[in-house]
């Protein structure tokens, strides 16, 4: 029996027709890398725009809102919308059939609406206006983001999920870091500047993604289409999943806690640096630039660590590295104590940002990628509501009662964030068994 070199024609196949050369392993990996890089592009725009909103809108709102609790409620609107919209939009994208497939029409429709809401946010000067702008922004965000995220399990094999999510996390880290660093500088030029810049970038990123994807690969094929669910059916199916599958219940709580910790920090970190530590916006941008580099480093190594040690195990250790050192900035304003622990917090935070969705992917049936991508955002909604709100209340309580050991009121942000993330450690241990 003879063998043929890969790609060579060894004679006609049984039943007629022609042989198709098998793709080489290197070719397959190159295609996988290109797909992952292309898929990550919208994440950069989405991450930048949401970071501008959740980090710099509180700074703008602090001018006309005197309560950190109210600021927390304003940012927590994202979590409220995350409960309602993602499961519905994701389930709808599972069954929608158009010339552009089931996912892309949502991205096409949501992106311009998101950009318009961002531009409007640059002119808010009252709480009511700010609420309307936030609702419009996050409604458009979830309209476009959930079907986009469902493209990951559609286009990337399960065994590459950690690498894909690490690539997405790198893009998320780049977008987050760029927003953190440039937002303060742009805000010095005018209130509208960071929001307008975010609108331009998200439109450019999503437009380039759509153009490249359709030109090079064509309409993405969903692995298995099914009839679109209505609102009642979508939530009934999610309730069945949570009720009957203990790993999904643990994941729901754990991801809510991870996102709560991240949300608390993003909402109040600029106010902690400027109003708490007394630095300027320009100086705050320098501090956040260093943190962004560390976040990006954590996101970059997350996939490789997960492939080697397991996703849940890496998340367990990252939660400790993220949450435990927060006791230092909670109790002290001394730079000599804070500076050494911030890189550990930031690197661990990059890992915590990178892997949660990769943990969920193996639990997704092929026919429910959109629905369960919506489930992912629903779990995030728990934290996106709780984190900013609890942190805002804790800051006001700490300001009223007096801060311990010379800390200041905004330091309560660290106590809330650290406590939420450390609470995931036993849940991650249980998820390791599932994995």
Entry keywords:
single chain; 435 residues; mainly alpha; Growth Hormone, Chain: A; 16 helices; 77% helix; 0% strand
Outline the biggest β-sheet. Answer: none
How much beta, percentage-wise?
A: under 5%
- Mean pLDDT equals 82
User: Care to count the β-strands?
Assistant: 0
Sheet/helix structural class: mainly alpha
Helix and strand string, N-terminal first? HHHHHHHHHHHHHHHH
CATH-level-4 superfamily name: MFS general substrate transporter like domains
Looking at the structure, the CATH topology is Growth Hormone, Chain: A
CATH class: Mainly Alpha
Q: Indicate the radius of gyration in whole angstroms.
A: 22 Å
Distance between termini? 42 Å
Judging from the principal axes of the Cα atoms, what is the shape?
A: globular
| Low-confidence segments | 1-20, 224-228
CATH architecture classification: Up-down Bundle
Work out the helicity level: over 70%
Please tell me about this protein's structure:
With 435 residues, the chain is mainly α. It has one domain: Growth Hormone, Chain: A (Up-down Bundle), CATH 1.20.1250.20. Helices cover 77% and strands 0% of the residues. It has 16 helices and no strands.
Structure at a glance:
This protein is an all-alpha fold. Helices cover 77% and strands 0% of the residues. The radius of gyration is 22 Å and the shape is globular.
Question: Topology, please?
Answer:
Elements: H1 25-61, H2 68-95, H3 104-121, H4 127-155, H5 161-189, H6 192-216, H7 231-244, H8 246-276, H9 281-309, H10 311-323, H11 327-331, H12 335-354, H13 356-360, H14 369-401, H15 412-422, H16 425-434
């Amino acid at each position: 029996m003879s063998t043929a070199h890969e790609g060579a024609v060894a004679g006609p196949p049984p039943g007629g027709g022609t042989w198709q050369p098998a793709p080489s392993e290197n070719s397959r990996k190159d295609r996988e890398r290109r797909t992952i890089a292309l898929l990550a592009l919208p994440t950069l725009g989405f991450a930048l725009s949401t970071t501008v909103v959740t980090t710099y809108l509180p700074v703008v709102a602090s001018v006309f809102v005197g309560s950190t609790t109210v600021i927390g409620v304003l940012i927590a609107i994202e979590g409220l919308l995350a409960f309602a919209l993602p499961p519905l939009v994701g389930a709808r994208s599972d069954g929608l059939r158009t010339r552009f497939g089931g996912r892309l029409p949502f991205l096409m429709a949501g992106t311009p609406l998101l950009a318009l809401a961002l531009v409007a946010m640059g002119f808010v000067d009252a709480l009511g206006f700010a609420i309307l702008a936030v609702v419009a922004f996050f409604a458009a965000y979830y309209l476009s983001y959930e079907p986009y995220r469902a493209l990951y399990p559609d286009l990337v094999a399960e065994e590459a999920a950690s690498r894909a999510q690490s690539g997405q996390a790198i893009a998320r880290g780049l977008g987050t870091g760029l927003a953190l660093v440039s937002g303060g500088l742009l805000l010095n030029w005018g209130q509208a500047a960071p929001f307008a810049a975010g609108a331009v970038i998200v439109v450019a990123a999503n437009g380039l993604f759509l153009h490249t994807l359709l030109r090079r690969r064509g309409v993405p094929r969903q692995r298995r289409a099914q009839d679109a669910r209505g609102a009642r059916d979508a939530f009934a199916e999610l309730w069945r999943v949570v009720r009957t599958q203990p790993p999904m219940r643990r994941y729901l709580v754990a991801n809510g806690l991870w996102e709560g910790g991240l949300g608390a920090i993003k909402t109040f970190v600029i106010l902690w640096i400027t109003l708490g530590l007394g630095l300027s916006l320009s100086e705050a941008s320098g501090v956040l630039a260093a943190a962004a580099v560390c976040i990006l480093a954590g996101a970059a190594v997350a996939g490789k660590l997960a492939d080697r040690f397991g996703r849940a195990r890496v998340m367990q250790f990252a939660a400790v590295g993220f949450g435990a050192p927060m006791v230092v900035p909670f109790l002290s304003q001394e730079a000599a104590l804070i500076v050494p622990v911030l890189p550990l917090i930031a690197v661990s935070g990059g890992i915590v940002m990178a892997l949660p969705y990769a943990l969920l992917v193996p639990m997704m049936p092929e026919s429910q990628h959109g629905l369960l991508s919506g489930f992912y955002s629903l779990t995030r909604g728990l934290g996106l509501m709780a984190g900013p709100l609890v942190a805002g209340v804790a800051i006001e309580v700490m300001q009223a009662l007096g801060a311990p050991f010379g800390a200041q009121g905004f330091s309560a942000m660290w106590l809330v964030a650290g406590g939420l993330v450390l609470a995931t450690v036993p849940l991650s241990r249980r998820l390791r068994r599932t994995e």
